[in-house]
TrEMBL record:
It comes from the Bacteria. InterPro entries: AAA+_ATPase, P-loop_NTPase, TPR-like_helical_dom_sf, TPR_rpt. Pfam families: TPR_12. SMART domains: AAA (SM00382), TPR (SM00028). This is Cdc6-related protein, AAA superfamily ATPase. It comes from Nonomuraea solani. GO terms for molecular function: ADP binding.
Length: 708
């Protein structure tokens, strides 16, 4: 079943509405209107003996009165840079009402550094920019980010940066903003941006004892003070090493500290010839904690290093290890108690530190047979494919008969109560799913790779992420070709063509669609052939070649009708009407829209029926039939409100405002525009700018001074 989606805005501009043109089946698609100001900081950690550093950070902030402040917190591995940055961020967060943004830049993660392009996409979405309006290129995203943040009080925390180039695009432009960066490196390339630096050194002896005292209790520490002091020195007064050791001791209240000291000293002697000094200290503490785990917890610890992303939930963990969800949650709790994992605010887990993941990765290579590792990866990838497919069916029930046949089939598949739950899961797992496509290819699971990339289309359709989806689909296309499956190759060519068209890379999109067209003709897939021809019409519309677009879309709608594909005929007619409205041919557009409505009447697709109503409202308004326009727009507004679609509600209200303005009802027009403005949410989103400009133009025409 061909997918027919594009991001071309034709006819009367309706903002995100046209770009979300293939949302099916009453999906509750929420945009920034339903979101509060972002509050992304992870939970505040316990901090010991960093009063001087906190005071230094406060002083730097007091000095920066009229420029954005960028502070680099640097120091050796395991010294507690993240804990310090998070603590200070929580202390000052109330001064930043427009949001607190957080990103793990994964400078030393086995998953590879995060790209600033990817982080900017997440930041812009969190700040209220509709995802379908987020540009694809890094420079464009960075420019939009600066525009969005120019007058906002935002706090940005960028953890574990690798290079200045990774950080530079993520710096907000407002003089009232503060950015905190943590890194092992000095990042001197940021000096031109006014970066200030705070160096975090190891604990002194008393601070190390304070950390142990907080974990073990004063009585136990005082009774074994000498051994505690030796332990602090063996851990080189590094908070990470001390925290791991303290977690193990806390779980064994009767265990003498002297035994831990002896074991740790022996461990370090063994490793001393293999690693640099700081790594020896942390590795020895990790080895001791690992050997204290029960066998099933130790096995899970090793296997978790095979996960494709940097966060994992209980369901994914159960699939990876081949255990029940209840057992997975229990073991994840054990590993968290041992300070090897950290639980996150969204109910998932991650390794406590990049070095901890590296430790687990080395262990799984050494202790688990290749066959066992491959089975674990296969179980996880199969679960991701099955669960993503379930979410896809919730969101797009019209996509049927799709191959989803990874092996081995998962024992348990996560299901969803409705489309909104499915969309939330897909978005929360986006980084993991994208990484899973690559992981599947790397492990020779080509079928799983292309099918997972295909199943992710619902996520990309509703949430955008244009650049990221091109990367996923290029991997999926390569996997399909490796399978020697022309059907899979044709589908992935279509997917990639739609994504490239959305990014304005029209020549590349045409090449992909023509490649798919050749495959469908060779296979005798007439309906898919027509779908590719329609897509070529959408590229023509995106290029502004309305004559070619109308010709192709007219032919495609007639061909779909001859094949009895009513829904595809209807959607093609909506496309055609949009192009006609761009040529001020409102009456012709109405004819096609009425036909589309008739064809959709028997389809469970209330969202697209409401879209037809909004298009008809604009078409009737441009033709001077205010009564019909009002009727269509208000009916569509009711449906969009029932569906929970902020995009649809704003578009309908904007249409009603335009209609009221055309007919001289200026007070009503202003109310409609203001209501649409409020729905767009964050005060610096693109949707907000567009409607605000419409309102400003209206007020300039009427001589009214209007402020928002």
């Amino acid at each position: 079943m061909s997918e027919i989606v594009h991001n071309d805005v034709t006819g009367v501009v309706h903002g995100p509405l046209v770009q979300a043109r293939d949302v099916f089946g009453g999906v509750h698609f929420h945009t920034a209107a339903s979101l509060p100001a972002p509050s992304q900081l992870p939970p505040r950690p316990r901090l010991v003996d960093r009063e001087a550093a906190i005071a230094q950070l406060d002083a730097l902030r007091a000095e920066a009165t009229d420029v954005p402040l960028t502070v680099l917190i640097t120091g050796p591995v395991g010294v507690g840079k993240t804990a310090l940055s998070l603590t200070w961020a929580h202390m000052i967060r109330s001064d930043f009402p427009d949001g607190q943004l957080y990103a793990d830049l994964r400078g030393h993660s086995g998953a590879g550094p995060a790209s600033p392009q990817e982080v900017l996409g997440d930041f812009l979405q969190s700040l209220g920019v509709p995802t379908e309006l987020i540009p694809g290129e890094l420079a464009q995203r960075a420019a939009l980010y600066r525009t969005v943040t120019r007058d906002q009080r935002v706090l940005v925390l960028l953890d574990d940066a690798m290079t200045a180039a990774q950080v530079r695009p993520l710096l907000p432009s407002s003089s009232a903003s503060v950015t905190v960066v943590t890194s092992r490196y000095r990042l001197t390339g940021l000096l031109m941006h006014g970066m200030r630096s705070v160096y975090v050194d190891r604990f002194d002896a008393e601070a190390g004892l304070s950390l142990l005292r907080a974990a073990l209790g004063s009585d136990r520490l005082e009774q074994q003070h000498e051994a505690a002091s030796e332990l602090v020195e063996l851990c080189m007064r590094l908070p990470l090493a001390l925290s791991v050791a303290a977690a193990r001791l806390a779980a064994r209240p009767s265990w003498p500290l002297r035994e831990m000291v002896a074991a740790l000293a022996e461990e370090q002697r063994t490793l001393a010839a293999l690693s640099i000094e700081g790594d020896v200290t942390i590795r020895s503490a990790l080895d001791l904690s690992y050997r204290a785990l029960r066998s099933n917890a130790a096995g899970l610890y090793r296997l978790l290093s095979l996960t494709p992303g940097d966060r994992f939930g209980g369901d994914a963990t159960a699939a990876l290890a081949g255990i029940s969800r209840m057992e997975a949650r229990r073991l994840l709790g054990e590993l968290t108690d041992a300070n090897l994992l950290t639980d996150t605010a969204d109910g998932r887990y991650r390794f406590h530190h990049a070095l901890v993941r590296l430790h687990a990765s080395q262990l799984v290579e050494a202790e688990d047979q290749r066959e066992a590792r491959e089975l674990a990866v296969g179980r996880l990838l199969s679960w991701y494919l099955a669960t993503t497919s379930c979410a896809e069916r919730r969101l797009r029930p019209h996509r049927t008969r799709l191959p989803r046949d990874a092996e081995p089939p998962p024992a348990e598949v996560t299901d969803f109560g409705g489309p909104e739950d499915a969309l939330m899961w897909l978005e929360s797992e986006r980084a993991n799913l994208s990484a899973a496509v690559t992981l599947a290819r790397e492990h020779g699971r080509e079928t799983t790779a292309w099918q997972l990339a295909d199943a992710m289309w619902a996520l990309f359709l509703f949430m955008g992420h244009h650049v990221e989806r091109v990367e996923v689909e290029e991997t999926g296309l390569a996997a399909a070709r490796s399978c020697g499956d022309p059907y899979a190759e044709g589908k992935m060519l279509n997917r990639l063509g739609l994504s490239l068209n959305a990014l304005g890379r029209h020549d590349e999109a045409v090449a992909r669609f023509e490649g798919a067209l050749e495959i469908w003709r060779r296979l005798g897939e007439r309906e898919r052939e027509v779908g590719s021809l329609r897509r070529l019409g959408l590229v023509a519309a995106a290029r502004g070649d309305h004559g070619a677009a109308i010709a192709r879309l007219t032919d495609a709608s007639a061909a779909f009708q001859a094949l009895g594909a009513d829904r595809k005929t209807a959607l093609t007619l909506i496309d055609l009407a949009g192009v006609l409205m761009a040529q001020d041919r409102g009456p012709d557009a109405v004819v096609h829209l009425e036909r589309a409505r008739q064809l959709l009447s028997g389809v469970d697709d209330s969202y697209n029926r409401a879209r037809v109503g909004i298009f008809l409202g604009h078409a009737h308004a441009s033709s001077g039939d205010g009564n019909k326009a009002n009727q269509e727009l208000r009916a569509a507004l009711d449906v969009m409100a029932e569906l929970g679609s902020s995009v649809g509600r704003a578009a309908a209200l904007e249409g009603l405002g335009n209609l009221a303005e055309r007919t001289g009802r200026r007070d009503e027009a202003r109310r409609m525009y203001e209501a649409a403005l409020q729905i767009t949410g964050q005060t610096e989103s693109i949707g907000h700018f567009r409607i605000k400009e419409r309102l400003a133009a209206f007020d300039r025409h009427t001589g009214v001074c209007h402020e928002t």
